[in-house]
Amino acid sequence: MRAGILGGGQLGRMLALAAHPIGIETTVYDPAPDACAGQVTNHIAAAFEDAEMLSSLVDGLDVVTFEWENVPLSAAEIVMKKAPLRPNAKALAAAQDRLSEKTLFSECGVETAPFRTVDSREHLKAAVQEVGLPAVLKTRRLGYDGKGQFVLRAPADEDAAWEALGGSPLILEGFVAFQRELSVICVRGLDGDERFYPLTENHHRDGILRLSIAPAPRLTPELQAAGEEIARKIARRLDYTGVLAIELFELDGRLLANEMATRVHNSGHWTIDGAVTSQFENHMRAVCGLPLGSTATRGLSAMVNLIGTLRGSKEVLAIEGAHLHLYGKEPRPGRKIGHVNVVAEDEGVLRQRVAAVQRLVEGA
Fold this sequence. Notes:
Blueprint: E1 2-6, H1 10-19, E2 25-29, E3 42-44, H2 51-58, E4 63-66, H3 73-80, H4 89-96, H5 98-107, E5 115-118, H6 121-131, E6 135-139, E7 149-152, H7 158-165, E8 170-174, E9 180-188, E10 194-196, E11 200-205, E12 208-214, H8 221-237, E13 242-251, E14 254-261, H9 271-274, H10 279-287, E15 300-307, H11 313-317, E16 322-326, E17 336-344, H12 347-362
Parallel strand pairs: 1-2, 1-4, 2-3
Antiparallel strand pairs: 5-8, 6-7, 6-8, 9-10, 9-11, 9-13, 11-12, 12-15, 13-14, 15-17, 16-17
Helix pairs in contact: 1-10, 4-5
């Protein structure tokens, strides 16, 4: 079985590493000559707009997937002429535009924060009046880890927000007084088989995910079922194949959908060491039409992102239950260069180990 991966960042790297032991040969396609996935698998370095090189990638492949939801749709169209693209182009397009994404959630009967499209300064004023403040103005396309966003707390912020982001298609989203951020990760096979990992609790700082805990503390069967139902509705509407992640807000026992990722997700990295089958292996199984693996946990898990630089790698490895995963990237401020998974059988022990890791890698 031969699979192509559009995008050669850390997600492509971990997909390739998970694919090889189960007999799937991979090739990543990424414009960057130093793409970190190229350190562990075949790499074609060319632009996504290069139709000839894209066609050469697909020759002889059984399937193509992607690790980045902003792959140009034009590239997807070239790929689909020669090989199946999984997840499909419909899912790819929906994830590229926050308005399309929120509209999809609404069509599936999934609750979200209030939102309005913004195409002009006048639209922004009207949207603020309808949605209320505080609110966050976001670019509809691109933008991640807090980029492409402006928080409005008073009407006087409208001019600054428009000055910062105006000129691009925008969406205004109302704030939600949520108790915590969660995510649900599901995997859907080519045959429609659906598996779900336990809901994960996520902690962000400066718009970047810093810590995930799984299963989420105080997770009830009702909350798990609600998260699964949200993912199930969206996956079925998209006729989805592969791993799908939905970022959620918990509000008084309810779950509101925030965003989705039509790919493997940062909040699921704990599955490499904490689940019977990782999200990466299950994604490759799904897109290649293979049986899905168990999503059962191996105890309690947490993931600590390594942002910008790595401190104390030797000391991290000395912590019982800690597993270091580096991406082969040059350190720079704000860049995800790896993560540490921590496993334990007891919640108190898990928190102690996580705190020890954080003190080392964050200087906390």
